[in-house]
Amino acid sequence: MRVCLEKSTGKLIESQSGGETQAHLDTLKQNAINAGHAESDIEVKYVTDGEYQAILDSMKPVQTYEDLRRAEYPSTDELIIALWEQVVEGRPESAAILQAKREKIKLSYPKV
Questions:
Q1: Which residue in 4, 25, 47, 82 could disulfide with 95, CB within 3.0 to 4.6 Å?
Q2: pTM of the model
Q3: Binning pLDDT at 50, 70 and 90, where does residue 62 land?
Q4: Domain housing 39
Q5: Quick one: 39 and 78 in the same domain?
């Protein structure tokens, strides 16, 4: 696997499979220059599958506490039903269970 990285940020500009010569690396470099990257800020190299995966993993967005909370929070439907049962039907059990769940999630993922 061949990669072209932006030196200043470590971000992946382009990757290509195959090719084993300097000419193949030069193609990646020229593509980056044509795309507007400064030649001095370009690094091209061959990487192993593990190194390539590490580059891809580093590009994944970091999840915020809000993202993590949202993934575990009860759905809006669950909240509405629990609220209805508590307010209209006088049955607070579901609301209490959901509130305990929400508090646990808030403790697991505190605001930053």
A1: 82
A2: 0.57
A3: confident
A4: 2-58
A5: no
